[in-house]
Design brief:
9 strands; alpha+beta; about 40% strand; eight-stranded antiparallel β-barrel
Length: about 180
Amino acid sequence: MINNCKRTIFSKACFFFGLSVLLVFTSCVRQSDMQTEGASYLQGVWVQDSIPNQNEMMDYTLHEFTFTCDSIYTKMHNVSKVQRMVDSCYQDGKWSEYAQGVYVVRGDSILAEGIYTRENGKQKISGCYKIGQYLPRFKIASYSKDSLVLENRFDQRPIVLRKVKDIVCVPKKRWEMN
């Protein structure tokens, strides 16, 4: 009776171990090293010229987006009339930040996943301003051939963009980009 019980427990343990290993290996998906095409209507360079009442604001950011295939490159032009950081970073209240990553369009939203970078595109791991992950979530309020309006879930002001350059997506291997 005891041997039979041990055999049953051992059999069940082996079965669940084998099932666990099978689930782990079948749930892993190798990501392609090639870019995908992304959203065709986003391909290009988009610029935010101004924000309503920006002269009265204490802080604001103007965005510049480049969509190439499934990649997103962002330049953020920041203005702050109040110094909230050390002198060497404040730079008279005007500075730019950079980020890059990949994006997908899901329904009416742009979901991006990337990192903050230096101007040369290299990962930024220290220094002034933002470092680490770049994870914006934008709702696409409207778009046309030359106009794009995004809503950021963290800011009530819409980001009104105009297209300044068209880009044709030519997928590349990820390590060949830039």
